[in-house]
TrEMBL record:
Signal peptide: 1-27
Keyword Amino-acid biosynthesis attached: no
Organism: Crocosphaera watsonii WH 0005
The keyword Signal belongs to this UniProt entry's keyword annotation: yes
Annotated ranges, domain DUF1400: 27-136
Protein name: DUF1400 domain-containing protein
Length: 140
């Protein structure tokens, strides 16, 4: 049986994790997520405010409610957004250029698309590597 809430949780958490990891380098103002015929956008400021202060504005609250995240899961998401991950940028680059890395980027690029619906895998690859090389940044 199709579990709509669980699927949305997975999509939201995966998208936010990958997107937020790349945000410091990309400096985007909005996150565009396209899933099937649904196009979602989220202001980066909403995530920054949530990560820094714990404040959930109306826009972010809509996505968190849609994903069915309870208070504990929201707290976990906030913790994920501020963690600094010690990732070697060179190793990450090598991984993302393997067949497995390409498949991962291709699938994430469907969710994290460019304006016009184009796959965002190349943008993600560059942003993830650049963010991994910047040791001063957390996810947001």
């Amino acid at each position: 049986m199709f579990n709509f809430t669980k699927k949305w949780q997975n999509i939201l958490l995966l998208s936010l994790s990958c997107l937020c990891f790349s945000l410091p380098s990309v400096a985007a103002e909005r996150i565009n997520i396209i899933w099937q015929s649904l196009r979602l956008t989220l202001e980066v400021n909403s995530l920054e405010q949530f990560a820094d202060e714990g404040v959930i504005n109306q826009e972010l609250d809509f996505y968190l409610q849609t994903a069915g995240l309870d208070d504990e899961q929201r707290k976990s998401l906030r913790e994920i957004l501020v963690i600094q991950y010690p990732i070697d940028g060179v190793q990450l680059s090598k991984f993302l250029n393997t067949p497995t890395g390409e498949i991962l980027l291709e699938r994430l690029g469907i969710l994290v698309s460019l304006p016009g619906g184009r796959n965002g895998k190349y943008l993600l690859r560059g942003a993830l590597i650049q963010a991994a090389l910047d040791k001063e940044k957390a996810l947001v």
